């Protein structure tokens, strides 16, 4: 079924902003879809994520190229994973991706059901608020990368963000800051880590999202382009906020949103105690 162009653009704006800012893209998309009275089709979800995936590649292109280049070389010379900046980034991404995949695949079926519950979405938004607020007291970062076990821990944090309303960037950036990683590096590593997970989701869901039943291409293209453009702006804004030590300010938005979402869930006629 074809999604209306206006709805595709709205979803593109929401995806572009919330995929990167620590306020949960899945949580906001779930709320928008509930307000529209239904769920966006799989094809729309896939192309929106493709738009923000492309935005990440563009903004972090130098780091991505270095990580891929040194990571591939590191397969033949493992010492490069420790000796070069790109190799160290690749090593962290690889370590983090394993627990992320395990947690994500384990929770996948449950998440599809939980996304339709404003109460669960609101509770997870509240946890995102706790994560960003906690960075107000995180230590001054001096490290360029986390330790081996620290990378695994960040991967677990990233995997938990499959829950609707639990922000991936909030969980990973907060974890990295608490592990003593510099703010600018926490930004880079957080989104480098996201690339394998997002790419995997696009590939897995894309196999089932497109077919004869898929609607017109124009709404999908419009949503993708909007998500891409808005995503670039959001990424650059987040880097500035994070380096400036102001990440905790996002809690001021998340807390009232979480409370309102939970209250809405209890007030809905379909809610059953």
UniProtKB/TrEMBL annotation:
Iron as UniProt keyword: no
Domain of life: Bacteria
Catalyses which reaction(s): di-trans,octa-cis-undecaprenyl diphosphate + H2O = di-trans,octa-cis-undecaprenyl phosphate + phosphate + H(+)
Compartment(s): Cell membrane
Swiss-Prot/TrEMBL keywords: Antibiotic resistance, Cell membrane, Cell shape, Cell wall biogenesis/degradation, Hydrolase, Membrane, Peptidoglycan synthesis, Transmembrane, Transmembrane helix
Membrane topology note: Multi-pass membrane protein
Plastid found in the keyword field: no
Transmembrane segments: 90-107, 119-137, 149-166, 186-204, 216-238, 247-267
InterPro entries: UppP
EC number: 3.6.1.27
Function statement: Catalyzes the dephosphorylation of undecaprenyl diphosphate (UPP). Confers resistance to bacitracin.
Family membership: Belongs to the UppP family.
Note: Bacitracin is thought to be involved in the inhibition of peptidoglycan synthesis by sequestering undecaprenyl diphosphate, thereby reducing the pool of lipid carrier available.
Listed name of the protein: Undecaprenyl-diphosphatase
Gene: uppP
């Amino acid at each position: 079924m074809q999604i209306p162009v206006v709805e595709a653009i709205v979803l593109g704006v929401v995806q572009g902003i919330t995929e990167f800012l620590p306020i949960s893209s899945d949580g906001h998309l779930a709320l928008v879809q509930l307000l529209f009275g239904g769920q966006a089709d799989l094809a729309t979800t896939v192309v929106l994520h493709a738009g923000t995936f492309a935005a990440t590649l563009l903004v972090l292109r130098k780091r991505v190229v270095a990580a891929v280049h040194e990571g591939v070389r590191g397969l033949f010379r493992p010492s490069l994973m420790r000796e070069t900046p790109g190799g160290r980034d690749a090593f962290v991404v690889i370590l983090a991706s394993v627990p992320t995949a395990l947690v994500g695949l384990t929770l996948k079926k449950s998440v599809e059901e939980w996304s339709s519950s404003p109460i669960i979405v609101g509770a997870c938004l509240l946890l995102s608020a706790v994560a960003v607020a906690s960075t107000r007291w995180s230590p001054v970062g001096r490290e360029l990368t986390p330790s081996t076990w620290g990378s695994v821990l960040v991967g677990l944090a990233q995997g938990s963000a499959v829950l609707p309303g639990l922000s991936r960037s909030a969980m990973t950036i907060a974890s990295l800051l608490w592990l003593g990683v510099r703010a600018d590096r926490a930004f880079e590593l957080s989104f480098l880590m996201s690339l394998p997970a997002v790419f995997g989701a696009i590939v897995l869901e894309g196999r089932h999202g497109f077919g004869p039943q898929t609607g017109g291409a124009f709404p999908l293209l419009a949503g993708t382009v909007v998500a891409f453009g808005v995503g670039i702006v959001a990424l650059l804004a987040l880097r500035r906020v994070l380096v400036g030590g102001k990440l905790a300010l996002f809690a001021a938005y998340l807390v009232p949103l979480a409370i309102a979402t939970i209250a809405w869930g209890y007030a809905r006629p379909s809610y059953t105690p």
